[in-house]
Amino acid sequence: MKAPWNKSAIKAYQIFNWVFFSAMVFVNYLANALPINDKTTGQLSNQYPNLFVPAPITFSIWGVIYLLLLWFCIKQSKSLFSRQADPATAETVSVVGPRFIVTCVLNMVWIFSWHYEYIAFSVFIMVLFLAQLINLNARIHTLTPYLANTSRFTVKAPFGVYLGWICIATVANITALLVYFNPNGWGQSDVFWASAMALVGAIISSYALLKLCNAYIGLAVIWALVGIIIARLDAEVYHRFVVWSAVFGIMIVSASVLAEITGSLFRTKKVKVVGTTDTSTHTTIISNLKS
Prior knowledge:
transmembrane; mainly alpha; 10 helices; membrane; Tryptophan-rich sensory protein
């Protein structure tokens, strides 16, 4: 039976994944090394002060995200220089590749829109970014039952952590936009907005990780909420409602992570078909995932 992917297209995606990943990392490096528009990403964030901004150490998660994405790029390169395509790799690349490229482009566009202070446009891009990562993780969720455990980690960990962090980043971006348009908080205090945003971010991400069966999403969110707590504890003024909202958010997400891990242990495992005999059902699934 004919494979549901084109060998030439797979090799092209394998190459372009490296190209766009490298470009994304380089642009993010320039954002703070130059910096772009003479302001670092952190300096721009400080222009819109709010209690939702986490401690600086929290942003070190980008290093983890890039290392995980690097691991994905390395693993997806399997069979790049061989004539015979590896079925599991080919089908993963055919589903993930084009969507990963889009996320790289959106990441770079957001950097420029943020650094040139098009705040409203940056929120629009961030929402598209979040939507694309949700779509990507949804496709991965459908694909993973047909992959070996190591291959599952290769796609679920990088894009799960990525989605979790961007969930919180989107909330932070929207918060900055609210401050940009009205520094007075639209009739509500900074404490109200930060507390509400922490809970909203926790609830949305918990729903996403349970829906997509990806506990890695929650790990990134927990880290972000811990960063908010650290920032508030280090501040001159202690805002206990923000801290306790973040703590409650961590409890919600942690419970969701434990529920997902427990559920995965008892979840009925589907028969893995990637790398074995092709079936019409499998071909249909992969074709639908690509569309």
